Automatic annotation (TrEMBL):
Coiled coil: none
Protein family according to the UniProt entry: Belongs to the RRP1 family.
InterPro entries referenced in this protein's UniProt entry, alphabetically: RRP1
Name this protein carries in UniProt: Ribosomal RNA-processing protein 1
Length: 241
């Protein structure tokens, strides 16, 4: 399967190269290819993401893995049309969901990072295109009904762990213009509190109350710990020499 995709997109294989010049050239070629697409359907996006998954799978050493994960997440900006971006994101979730159960533990960290980087980009795109929330996030990582096997549990929980972090990292929480987006994402998580899967329900309830969110409340244990730290700071520490 991987060989077939390499034959179709020879520059994808070179994304995993240890040669920085070759890697950069391949990335530029892929961006040019995407920017030339007047349309992109989900089937085409899936084919591309299968190759990109393979490229990251083959990439060794933390620094190149981190660079490639960020580069792959940002590829969507090369697509000229919102409809193509939506198809691109759907292709991403479909491929990651299919491959997640088959990803070895030793290789999992780089794909966890890819999901984080891609989710942040989706939030940035969602500020201009509501379809990213309605047609992508609602139907994939935040789906609470239907075929819940479509997205593996581990992938769902990872997204539930990172969504507030990425709302913060993309400045959505501090941006008044992104207030509606924050609420829409929050509503998706709120709906998951009635999900049939217990682990999803519990994680959704826990993260929905994150103190960084407009409606969030601080964890009592954290508040107690902070108060204890303050008390310690007030204690006399002896004579400083």
């Amino acid at each position: 399967m991987a060989a077939a995709h390499e034959a179709q997109m020879p520059f994808i294989r070179n994304l995993a190269s240890s040669d920085r010049k070759l890697r950069t050239g391949s990335l530029d070629s892929l961006k040019l290819f995407l920017s030339s697409r007047t349309s992109l359907d989900t089937q085409d996006a899936v084919k591309l993401w299968k190759g990109l998954y393979y490229a990251l799978w083959m990439t060794d050493r933390p620094a190149p893995q981190q660079r490639l994960a960020a580069d792959l997440a940002r590829l969507v900006y090369s697509l000229p049309r919102d409809e193509a971006k939506t198809a691109w994101f759907v292709g991403f979730w479909q491929v990651l969901s299919e491959r997640w159960p088959h990803t070895e533990a030793l290789r999992m960290d780089k794909f966890l990072l890819l999901v984080r980087r891609a989710f942040a980009v989706m939030l940035e795109c969602a500020q201009k295109s509501p379809a990213v929330v309605d047609d992508v996030l609602r139907e994939w990582p935040f789906e609470g009904t239907g075929d819940l096997r479509k997205v593996p549990l581990g992938l769902r929980l990872h997204v539930l762990d990172l969504w507030v972090d990425e709302l913060e990292s993309t400045k959505c929480l501090a941006n008044e213009e992104a207030k509606d987006l924050v609420k829409k994402i929050g509503d998706l998580v709120l709906e998951l509190q009635t999900c049939p899967v217990k682990a999803v329900r519990e994680r959704a309830k826990e993260n929905y109350q994150d103190g960084r969110l407009p409606w969030g409340t601080k964890d009592e244990d954290m508040s107690d710990a902070e108060e204890a730290d303050d008390d310690d700071d007030d204690e006399w520490g002896g004579i400083e020499e």
